[in-house]
Amino acid sequence: MTDSDGQQAQPPPQQGPPGPYGQRPPGPGGWQPPAPVNPSDERTWAMLGHLGGILLGFIAPLIVYLVYKDRSAFLRRHGSQALNFQLTMLIGTIVGAVLTVVIIGILVLVAVAVVIIVFSIVAAMAANRGEDYKYPMTIQFVS
User: Fold this and answer.
1) Does the model's pTM come out above 0.70?
2) pLDDT of the chain, 143 residues: tens digit per residue
3) Are 49 and 82 in contact (CB under 8 A)?
4) Which of 89, 141, 94 shows the shortest CA–CA distance to 118?
């Protein structure tokens, strides 16, 4: 491509480091990595991810994991643990629902509900203290 003077047109210089897929966004400064989360917000969001699972199932930890996984290692660990736990409990709930045909399913559903409430509260308390928590007997879907 040539300009009006007959010389080879040069592409404008690109600023900033490339984005996650090598692209450079328009505008001054270029791509910026996500801002880190301050420690008190980390503890709050981790706690909400665990407690949100009581009411919203796997949706609350999924949101925390997807939004904050690249901004905080602490939230990535807590989000993945809570998500794995809620997905495991979803499997337990489905099994309990199927087994309601044979009366034992009602007991399974009650046990799953109690386990969700107790372990989510314990995990939320650990997150509030800034500690890591690993749910027992959880299938690792997300790492």
Assistant:
1) yes
2) 555 666 666 655 555 555 556 665 555 666 667 788 888 899 999 999 999 999 999 999 999 999 999 999 999 999 999 999 999 999 999 999 999 999 899 999 999 999 999 999 999 999 999 999 999 999 999 98
3) yes
4) 89
